Amino acid sequence: MNRHDPRMSPKIVDVARTAGVSTATVSRALTAPGKVSAKTRAIVMAAVEETGYIVNHAARNLRRQQTGGIVVLVPNLSNPFFSQILSGIASVLSGAAFNVLIADTQQPKGADRQIIQYLHNNRADGLIVLDGGLPEHIFGNGDRQARPPAIFACEWIEGSEKLSVTIDNVAGAAMAIDHLVQLGHSRIGHVMGPPDNVLTIRRQEGTTAALERAHLPVRREWYFEGDFSLPSGVRAAKAWLALRDRPDAVFCSSDAMACGFMSELHRHGVRVPDDVSVVGFDDIEIAEHFIPTLTTIHQPRTTIGETAARMLLARINGGEDPVQSIRLPVDLVVRESTSAPRIA
Amino acid sequence: MNRHDPRMSPKIVDVARTAGVSTATVSRALTAPGKVSAKTRAIVMAAVEETGYIVNHAARNLRRQQTGGIVVLVPNLSNPFFSQILSGIASVLSGAAFNVLIADTQQPKGADRQIIQYLHNNRADGLIVLDGGLPEHIFGNGDRQARPPAIFACEWIEGSEKLSVTIDNVAGAAMAIDHLVQLGHSRIGHVMGPPDNVLTIRRQEGTTAALERAHLPVRREWYFEGDFSLPSGVRAAKAWLALRDRPDAVFCSSDAMACGFMSELHRHGVRVPDDVSVVGFDDIEIAEHFIPTLTTIHQPRTTIGETAARMLLARINGGEDPVQSIRLPVDLVVRESTSAPRIA
DNA sequence: CTGAAAGCGCTTACAG
DNA sequence: CTGAAAGCGCTTACAG
Predict the structure, then answer these.
(1) Chain B residues with CB inside 8 Å of A3's CB?
(2) Average of pLDDT values for A2-20?
(3) CA–C1' A24–D3 (A)
(4) Cα Rg for chain A, rounded, in angstroms?
(5) pTM metric for this prediction
(6) Which of A94, A112, A119, A282 has the most B C-beta neighbours within 10 Å, making it the best mutation to test the interface with B?
(7) Predicted pLDDT of residue B175
């Protein structure tokens, strides 16, 4: 016989028998101590201790019509950018006795079906969505399936009324550009994120607006394609190298791209910041240790995760809706990858 | 009234009514199609489609005496080293209709209690443990609580009989040292992982053994303390700089430390590989793009995750035990951070 | 191949 | 404050 036999665990009825009370009283002592006399509570607690009782969540959830799980939809689990956000989410949620279920929206096989499964309320009590590229209707009401509340974090869906925790991407991009302008740069380029991504769009807007404010040229060929990844930064560097007339400062929409960009430039003998200044976005851990260390826009990633989790909890528990979308501030962190341009 | 009303979802009884069969038949058609006639199955499937039925996992799990969840115990969720492993785990497990629950073993508050909770079989059907630093008895049988099967991945507990998916750390370290020896280095140092960690110990063993095989000095002051993190690599570099008699090649037990090490050396005008060669371990994404690109020992992280997940599944499903621990091979990836020593 | 019925382990109105 | 009892939505021997 299998040593792993679930039926060995004590049930609430075992505790009740040991304590000499009903299962109802045990249940109350555990979940609503105020409804039980101090004396009874003590007896029950002793019985819980003695039996080693632990609640069966499947049973509790079935009875309470909840799932005890929060699903986090991540665009790409293997991207380290998300790990700290997940960490923030997990710390708040597991403190609130929720399971954190993680689903990768870019999972190759049958991702759609799987995500849709998660969206049904018998699978999760709520969602935190880090991917703004999903079709909005899958979160929507309006069809026959009830859907659990969803909170967007980092990314969001334009025009959606769903709550979100975001940062000020336009301001962040503008801070990056303003920094370069103040250093004396007038020929500034931009490596963009993936097309259609909301972050890409906002950071591009912030970039363009700041350039225009400074009366600097906004040149189409200085807006390089990218997708936030390291390799796309390498490709952008190749595009930069291929230009005859090059920008002497580049703002990359992610740190990963900035690192790939600098890496490829270095391979071709172009020096940062002497030949070209580079600013990133995110402030991932390596930014502080890259060679050169990377000037970037800092995102409070743990706070983003924690805030999203707390907001979702408020949404799940509170009947009313004092909950509002939050936009967190970002900071410019100046390091070695930016300097005044060489005198031409 | 709350628009998010779970009771709206169709139940198995709704499908049964629509199909004109019993709930038992619906259940069978869904989970054991072979036990139902083709005709009935078609009728049931049509009814499922029509009603939009989705199984309630809490109910199924309660009835089946399982949880549908696999817990992954991660030493530090915000460490990007683990994200690709998690990705491998998640892809296999969600394909098998398991939820992936992630718990951070270094979570500040009440981590112990929380992890213990997860260890009870009514919370998870199995565990994948990435932290070899937990006390073994918490996984053990022997007390009154049944425990779900656990598989170790990457790390493990020395002397434990639990199954594991690991890499050959001794061989990996030896490959790193042999590479340096072949380049002509004879003064070789080592930056270690956290004390007592099994990976630290094995890689240190491999290092020492390879040095001895090459008849090279094994000097205590050339074994630098570390903990796998970037900042600890920075500290190791400071220790290196403080030596009068320095090794001219250093094998770091993680890529993160190697990057921190090189970063700090660079700050002090020491060139890699001209002044000192550096080898890392892991082959994280940045290794290929650091300046200089990092020579390192490649770990198949996605495969580690997938293998651990599949092994756990086999353990959960199969009554017999053909399942065995697996040690995956590693490769040396030669890049720019290593070269022959300068002629002294 | 199919159905009636029990039961998984809880929680919670309801009654006292 | 406490207990008896119903019921959450499934699955699965058991009987036919």
Answers:
(1) 141, 146
(2) 75
(3) 7
(4) 26
(5) 0.90
(6) A94
(7) 98
Q: In whole angstroms, what is the distance from residue A25 CA to residue A29 CA?
A: 6
Count interface pairs A-B at CB distance under 8 A.
192
Q: A123 contacts in B (CB within 8 Å)?
A: 54, 57
Same domain? For B193 and B221 the reply is yes
- Measured between CA atoms, how close is B140 to chain A, in angstroms? 11
Task: Kindly provide the b/e burial profile for residues A311-337, where b requires at least 16 CB atoms within 10 angstroms of the residue's own CB.
Answer: bbbbbbeeeeeebeebeeebebbebbb
> Strand C nucleotides below 7 A of a protein CB?
1-5, 7-13
Spatial contact of B252 and B200, defined as CB atoms under 8 Å apart? no
Task: Tell if the CB–CB gap between A58 and B67 is shorter than 8 Å.
Answer: yes
One domain, residues B307 and B244 = no
What Cα–Cα distance (Å) separates residue B89 from each residue in A71, B294, B306?
16, 27, 5
Range of the domain at B292: 169-299
Residue with tokens 């240190």: B204
Q: Are residue B228 and residue B179 in the same domain, yes or no?
A: yes
Q: Which of A166, A168, A138, A133 is nearest to A150 (CA)?
A: A138
Rounded mean pLDDT of B33-57?
93
Q: Is the pLDDT of residue A5 over 50?
A: no
Q: Do B2 and A230 touch (CB under 8 A)?
A: no
Question: B158 with B267, same domain?
Answer: no
Distance of alpha carbon B112 from alpha carbon A126, whole angstroms: 26
Would you state the pLDDT for residue A322? 66
Q: Are residues B146 and B182 in the same domain?
A: no
> Number of folded domains in chain A?
3
Mean residue pLDDT of chain A comes to: 89
> CA nearest B320 in A: which residue?
A2
What local confidence, expressed as pLDDT, does residue A31 receive? 92
Q: How far is CA B339 from the centre of its chain?
A: 31
